[in-house]
Specification:
The chain is an alpha+beta fold and 454 residues long. The chain has four domains: 85 residues, Uridine Diphospho-n-acetylenolpyruvylglucosamine Reductase, domain 2; 110 residues, 2-Layer Sandwich (Uridine Diphospho-n-acetylenolpyruvylglucosamine Reductase, domain 3); 105 residues, Alpha-Beta Plaits (2-Layer Sandwich); 89 residues, Alpha-Beta Plaits. 35% of the residues lie in helices and 20% in strands. The chain is built from 16 helices and 17 strands. The strands form four sheets. A seven-stranded antiparallel β-sheet has the order 14-11-13-12-16-17-15, sandwiched between helices. The chain has a four-stranded mixed β-sheet with strand order 1-2-4-3. α13 packs antiparallel against α14. 47% of the residues are buried.
Length: 454
Amino acid sequence: MPDTLLDELRGIVGPTQAFADPDLVAGYATDWTRKHSATPRLVVRPADTAEVSAVVTACADAGAAIVPQGGNTGLVGGAVPRRGEVVVSLTRLDDLGPVETTARSVVVGAGATLASVQAHAAAEGLAFGVDFASRQQATIGGMVATNAGGMHVLRYGMMRAQVQGIEAVLADGSVARRLGGLPKDNVGYDLPGLLTGSEGTLAILTRVRLRLVPAHRERVAALLAVDGIDEAVALTARLRGALPDLEAAELILEASLRLSIEHGGLTTPFAALPPAALLVECAADDDPTERLAAAVEDAGVDDAVVGVDRREREGLWAYREALLDAIAAEGEPLKLDVTLPGAEMAGFVADVEALLADLDPRCRCYVFGHVGDGNLHVNVLGLADDAAAAAEERILEGVLARSGSVSAEHGIGVTKTRWVPRSRDAGDLAAMRAVKRALDPAGLLNPGVLLPEP
């Protein structure tokens, strides 16, 4: 990297928006897990697409590798430097275009946060279909790059289902723009679909046209006691059939529920904690409380806590959303994000518990997730590094043996690249490599992420 690059970048973005001082770049060096960290050669903060294009062109001319970064809420090391790359922070690209109420869509900058998009849509009587706990920090560009999921996938789909158009800067600095958002437009390859989930390895997203959904006026949540994972899966399937307005179904196993109560200072929701709890929420234009209550009664659920007003609903969601902070307060976990077919979930968790008991009976395992789409989050505390590596290997092998996916909604990043060849056949992997070579022939965009290095 030439010494003149920093001065050139300052000429593009301004003298205060490109820097190499160790104290200034430190905030861009580490992801949320604190496991992935390296000092960036420098950080640059462009303000718009033209500046991103000029920055990428300058870096390409200098042969400098780039790591695009948004809110830096990732959990797999995909948005932090590894070998002294230039970090291109996109948080200044936070513009929010006018909400198109007839088309139910909006164009936003890649640096806009999820919370700001939600509030922007709500002001026009609409909503955004993706939601998760890091909404205040997570940015739209990062969410598209990782094909983020969250709590509402069973009703609205993952991030890919919300993307109607993109604007992106390619590796040579040229701009690819497809923001029209027409529902029927079959001219050429699906570039928005290709870049969704590409984790910054093919292009740098600068603007996105998002699909919006109706903002339902009435909501009701319920925390249901269930006997285990199989019952939670069956109950979710039954509720989905009976309740077209079901928006979320979250599984919390007993140990996780207990930890949430202890760390969150929450009251115990049931007289005795059940083996598992299922948190569900319905949203509709009319009050769905009676429909939910009838469906729960028909399903034979004996113990349930219902939340009707906002305070009550937020109180129930606290059992789920307090978990991440509660686990982090206990230590640095082995954190796995996987998907299983519904019929395989209980057997998988039983296998994990048996494996951990064999490796170290003193370790603690906390499992929760989005039962409606088979996404489980496995968090293990108390394993030594060598035991954690062995546990990860055997757990992910078990996922594949049960026809699951080793990456559900967090992405591949750098932590799971070696699992890509085990998850995709040779032809699939060759096609992905060919796309990478075509769009980034010099390999300067997020090197080492998503695809295993040859």
